């Protein structure tokens, strides 16, 4: 492989040099003297830049032959009937009309930015234009295009589509790679991958050797990984002058990126969508004659003023609605697009309109409008599943002979996701309930009607309290327009915004980039491991730099868990953590698990926490599901319940009963399988680090005891710790930063009346009105004392987050003193050793 890479680089250098002379290769022959090699082409003799060894000459011949072969294959597909039909379709896409402009911009500039409406053919066509042109120029074998996608599902579905457009199977010239899955062959020249995969490759291959083109797709989303990748690529470009970078965006904010790269060329692909009629809430109410929500159904909800009107005479209702809208106009200062304004709009909460409204509107569309799929944009997964349940129970919408009801969100399994692209049988109406994933990443072709609730769950980060939040918030104007655009793919469409026009007017133009609204710990570690210098200096070069406080918090955390030293350099632990593709806290668990020889159960915990929650809680069977989970609980620990559930599944699998086992116990079989492969992946990574003996296998019969696992969990998740206050019949939980906190109802500990332990270690806390803890394990004083991070330095330090602070805050002074003394002695002992 090493040789192959060297030769590939050599050949691509050679070819790019050749292409500069504009020669053609149709007449290529090699000749070799003892020390040198020359290549004859149509336009003369080309001296190789350095003496070629015979193996290099041979490789070059192989590559050239392969390039010829690729061209022949491409031509014969293009001349076949299937190929001609496909080409006809592709020619109809707006992107195809810009093909020449795009290609010439790419050949003349190192960085090109392409913007164009969703569905115009950016993702499927632009990488193909490059590939086809390279193949046609007999450079196919040397071309290596990487196109990044923010989500797994788009990498997978797009690569499949592009392979089909090229008349190939996946894994020939087109492949994909996402975490744990991928189809890629020896001759793959166009690879769709998630942004994370490319970042991991940069870890081992800083200059992206052999890559000819990097395409970063969907940059308008401004995900953290994409913003990070752009800083790295910006540094790399001067060192790799022949590397081409293409950025693609569904919105028109291209200037921002262009100026970031010092004025790169922008190409805009004029869009083509059929006209979409827009209805805001007031229009919907008027259009449907205010019939949508009978008053008696909505008395639970907050929007009474609006709905009471539905009982009154139409004319009067109309004027009253106008006055409600006017009120809102007054509430919202429309000149000010600040966040403040967005929050003041919460009086127009679409959630509080209830699902009845949406249900009735869907019925109205089914009864009064022509055919076409309906796409409903919902706030989040919980809304989708509750609405789906509700619709399934509806006499008309729940009738599967007339309605095909589907859900679409980022964490669903790939096989499920594919269903949404299928066209239903005649006479059946497809209704897709989706999160904002359907906004730009995936295109469902047959959508004619769009319902837009106007909100999306957005992660945000409260830097002051150092708490991540996941709250529904209003979308941006751009998102709202994107949602609308989804209706006009195949014919004129209709878009129903479930909020008044004045609310839309007060939306912010663009959403805040992710780097400004999430914790930065993993990012900081990545910066250190890529040796990119000082964290804050590096991040100051981002397109938009995060708040200083957020950066400091992240650095502080990494110091606290021992990943960075006082001078912000990676410690030994930190260096190991960067080798493991998990959050630092999970990485720490793996490391200590390996050191303490109890890796097997720890692998299960870490892989379980890295996949979608394996314990399912279907809304209509919530109680049964929670009871099933608590069967696995014996020691006040969700993590140990997970280990038992997994081990049970493994045993059942041996008897070919894994599926039944999952069904009975409300476990997700996909998550179980994903855990299985993650365990293997983590194990082999640990073996590579040398922490685990190369001869051991991951499934040996290490025995373990629950207290040890508790301690390991404590070591990883610290400072995620809260104190348990048992008072008679119940208990309450307190952290130092948040005061009282609550448990998610699917935690086994939430079903306990009492927890006979002093501390609860948790995986994650999230603020949704109150602060909730997810996945927790109860531990003893000694586990916290020995495994809960370092003591504060010096007695008077008083830094609350340090372990000493915890003990002092929650324990009786004399007890805390005793414990601190003990720990100090132990620390000294270890130092002496
Ligand atoms: O990236 P962009 O949103 O500009 O469009 P695209 O993903 O390249 O899709 C271009 C067109 O290809 C879509 O309008 C669909 O008609 C078609 N397509 C498809 O049929 N199946 C897919 N899986 C992806 C795209
Ligand atoms: Mg796209």
Automatic annotation (TrEMBL):
Record-annotated Helicase ATP-binding domain positions: 103-270
Span of the entire protein shown here: 199 to 1031 of 1186
Classification of source organism: Eukaryota, Viridiplantae, Streptophyta, Embryophyta, Tracheophyta
Similarity comment text for this entry: Belongs to the DExH box helicase family.
Keyword presence, Nucleotide-binding: yes
All copies of domain Helicase C-terminal, residue ranges: 357-531
Protein's UniProt keywords contain Membrane: no
GO molecular function ontology, one term from the record: RNA helicase activity
Keywords: ATP-binding, Helicase, Hydrolase, Nucleotide-binding, RNA-binding
Swiss-Prot/TrEMBL catalytic activity: ATP + H2O = ADP + phosphate + H(+)
Annotated GO CC locations: nucleus
EC number per UniProt: 3.6.4.13
Name of protein: RNA helicase
């Amino acid at each position: 492989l090493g040789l192959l890479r060297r030769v590939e680089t050599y050949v691509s250098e050679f070819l790019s040099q050749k292409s500069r002379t504009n020669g053609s290769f149709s007449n290529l022959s090699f000749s070799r003297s003892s020390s040198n090699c020359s290549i004859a082409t149509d336009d003369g003799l080309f001296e190789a830049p350095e003496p070629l060894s015979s193996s290099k000459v041979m490789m070059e011949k192989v590559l050239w032959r392969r390039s010829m072969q690729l061209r022949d294959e491409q031509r014969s597909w293009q001349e076949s009937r299937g190929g001609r039909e496909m080409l006809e379709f592709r020619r109809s896409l707006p992107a195809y009309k810009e093909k020449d402009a795009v290609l010439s911009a790419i050949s003349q500039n190192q960085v090109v930015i392409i913007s164009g409406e969703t569905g115009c053919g950016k993702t499927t066509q632009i990488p193909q234009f490059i590939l086809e042109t390279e193949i046609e120029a007999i450079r196919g074998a040397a071309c290596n295009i990487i196109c990044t996608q923010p989500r797994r599902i788009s990498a997978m579905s797009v690569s499949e589509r592009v392979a089909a457009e090229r008349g190939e199977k996946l894994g020939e010239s087109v492949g994909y790679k996402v975490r744990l899955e991928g189809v890629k062959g020896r001759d793959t020249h166009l690879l769709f991958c998630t942004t994370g995969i490319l970042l991991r490759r940069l870890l081992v291959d800083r200059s992206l050797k052999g890559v000819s083109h990097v395409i970063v797709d969907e940059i308008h989303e401004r995900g953290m990984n994409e913003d990070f990748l752009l800083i790295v690529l910006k540094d790399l470009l001067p060192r790799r002058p022949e590397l081409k970078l293409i950025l693609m965006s569904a919105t028109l904010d291209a200037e921002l990126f262009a100026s970031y790269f010092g004025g790169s060329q922008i190409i805009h692909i004029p869009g083509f969508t059929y006209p979409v009629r827009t209805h805001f809430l007031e229009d919907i109410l008027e259009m449907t004659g205010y019939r949508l929500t009978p008053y008696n159904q909505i008395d639970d909800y907050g929007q009474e003023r609006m709905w009471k009107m539905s009982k009154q005479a139409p004319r009067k209702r109309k004027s009253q609605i106008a006055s409600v809208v006017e009120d809102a106009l007054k509430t919202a200062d429309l000149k000010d697009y600040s966040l403040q304004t967005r929050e003041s709009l919460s009086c127009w909460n679409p959630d509080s309109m209830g699902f009845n409204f949406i249900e009735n509107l869907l019925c109205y569309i089914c009864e009064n409008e022509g055919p076409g799929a309906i796409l409903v944009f919902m706030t989040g997964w919980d809304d989708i599943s509750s609405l789906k349940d509700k619709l399934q129970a509806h006499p008309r919408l729940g009738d599967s002979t007339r309605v095909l009801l589907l859900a679409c969100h980022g964490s669903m399994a790939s096989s499920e996701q594919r269903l949404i692209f299928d066209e239903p049988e005649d006479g059946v109406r497809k209704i897709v309930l989706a999160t904002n994933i359907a906004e730009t990443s995936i295109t469902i072709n047959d959508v004619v009607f769009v319902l837009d609730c106007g909100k999306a769950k957005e992660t945000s980060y409260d830097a002051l309290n150092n708490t991540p939040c996941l709250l529904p918030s209003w979308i941006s104007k751009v998102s709202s327009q994107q949602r609308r655009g989804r209706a006009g793919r195949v014919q004129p469409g209709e878009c129903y915004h479930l909020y008044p026009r004045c609310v839309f007017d007060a939306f912010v133009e663009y959403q805040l980039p992710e780097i400004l609204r999430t914790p930065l710990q993993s990012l900081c570690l990545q910066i250190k491991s890529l040796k990119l210098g000082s964290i804050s200096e590096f991040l100051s070069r981002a397109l938009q730099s995060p708040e200083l406080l957020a950066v400091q918090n992240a650095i502080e955390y990494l110091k606290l868990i021992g990943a960075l030293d006082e001078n912000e350099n990676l410690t030994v632990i930190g260096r190991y953590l960067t080798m493991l593709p998990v959050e630092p806290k999970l990485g720490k668990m793996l490391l200590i698990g390996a050191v303490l020889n109890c890796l097997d159960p720890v692998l299960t915990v870490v892989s379980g926490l890295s996949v979608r929650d394996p314990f399912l809680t279907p809304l209509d069977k919530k109680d049964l599901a929670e009871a099933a989970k608590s069967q696995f609980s014996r020691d006040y620990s969700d993590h140990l319940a997970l280990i038992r559930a997994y081990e049970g599944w493994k045993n059942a699998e041996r008897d070919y009963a894994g599926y039944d086992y999952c069904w009975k116990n409300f476990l997700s079989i996909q998550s179980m399988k994903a855990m299985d492969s993650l365990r293997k992946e983590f194990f082999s990574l640990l073996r590579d680090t040398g922490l685990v003996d190369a001869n051991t296998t991951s499934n040996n019969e290490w025995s373990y005891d629950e207290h040890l696992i508790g301690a390991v969990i404590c070591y990883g998740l610290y400072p995620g710790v809260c104190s348990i206050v048992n008072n008679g019949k119940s208990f309450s939980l307190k952290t130092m930063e948040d005061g009282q906190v609550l448990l998610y109802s699917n935690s086994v500990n939430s079903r306990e009346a009492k927890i006979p332990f002093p501390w609860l270690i948790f995986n994650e806390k999230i603020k949704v009105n109150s602060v909730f803890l997810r996945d927790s394990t109860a531990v003893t004083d000694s586990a916290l004392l020995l495994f809960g991070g370092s003591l504060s330095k010096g007695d008077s330090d008083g830094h609350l987050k340090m372990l000493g602070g915890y003990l002092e805050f929650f324990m009786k002074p004399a007890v805390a003193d005793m414990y601190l003394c003990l720990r100090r002695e132990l620390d000294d002992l270890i130092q002496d050793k």
